[in-house]
Amino acid sequence: MADKHPRLRLDDNFASPIRFSLMAALLDGNELDFATLARILQVGDSALSKSISHLHVTGYVATRRGDVGSRPRTWVRSTAKGERAFAAHLHALQEIVEFGGRAPAQNVSMNASTVRFE
Amino acid sequence: MDQRPIEGAAPLPVPNSDIAQAYLDQVRAVRERREAGVDRRGAAWIGLVNAITLAVYITVISPRWGIAIVLGVVLLVALAVFFIAGILGVEMPFFVRLIPGALALVVLGAPALRSILGYGPIGAAVVFCLYAGSAFLDGRDG
């Protein structure tokens, strides 16, 4: 697995900036309510709702509904599956930055070792 | 794990290193906005009050080893169950989440109730009224 190019470990579910930021906000086991998320991510309700629905369908976030006083409220948190996927995605991005888009060193050395046998 | 495209869509173009770095910077920026925007003082006060209450309680019941041991076992079992469920990503049914609290209530509540009833019916009614009045005033102030 380690010799795969980082691009092969990207998760396109996080390609959207809002979905990416949503997962970043939910890191560290935070459970945040919808209004707080909208304020942190600086997005409208509709866009945030779509992003939460998308990640909910993929099983990356879980939602909980409740009331605060007489007002309904929705809380969102990342699932274990979502945290693993997002951590892998971040790791792949980090490697893309480090390799500058080139193939990882393991691949280079493997190819070089097969060039000649003397 | 191969690149995971959105279901029903072709894999998206791979970001170059500049865009990848911008995404990583965004994680830090979102975290900073979250820490600046979420007021955790309420939760911190509750945590402090809980810690003080627990400390006082442990001090008071420490001579009563039976209760302390049973309470400790209840808490350890609850911690183990919730810890394993958290690692496995299992959603706990609501009634399961009630069990440790119910056990703690029985373990701690039963001796307290016996003590209150030890005052006799009138004494118990007075103690109840005092505590109920205190709780009502706390709730109105809070």
Give a written overview of the molecule:
The complex is a heterodimer of chains A (118) and B (142). In chain A, 50% of the residues lie in helices and 16% in strands. Chain A has 118 residues and is of the alpha+beta class. Chain B has 5 helices and no strands. Chain B has helices at residues 17-37, 41-61, 65-88, 94-117, 120-141. The longest helix of chain B is centred in the middle third of the chain and has 24 residues, at 65-88.
CATH superfamily of chain A: Winged helix-like DNA-binding domain superfamily/Winged helix DNA-binding domain
The pLDDT mean of chain A sits at: 80
Got a strand count of chain A?
3
Note the main sheet of chain B: none
Low-confidence stretches of chain B: none
CATH class of chain A: Mainly Alpha
The value of Rg of chain B in angstroms is 25 Å
Q: Which strand-content bin applies to the residues of chain A? A: 15-25%
Distance between the termini of chain A: 30 Å
Could you tell me the strand content of chain B as a percent range? under 5%
List SSEs of chain B in N-to-C order: HHHHH
The shape of chain A is: elongated
Main sheet attributes: strand count, strand direction, barrel closure of chain A: 3 strands, antiparallel
Q: How are the elements arranged and paired?
A:
The complex is a heterodimer of chains A (118) and B (142).
Chain A: H1 17-25, E1 31-33, H2 34-41, H3 45-57, E2 61-68, E3 71-78, H4 80-99, H5 105-113
Antiparallel strand pairs in A: 1-3, 2-3
Chain B: H1 17-37, H2 41-61, H3 65-88, H4 94-117, H5 120-141
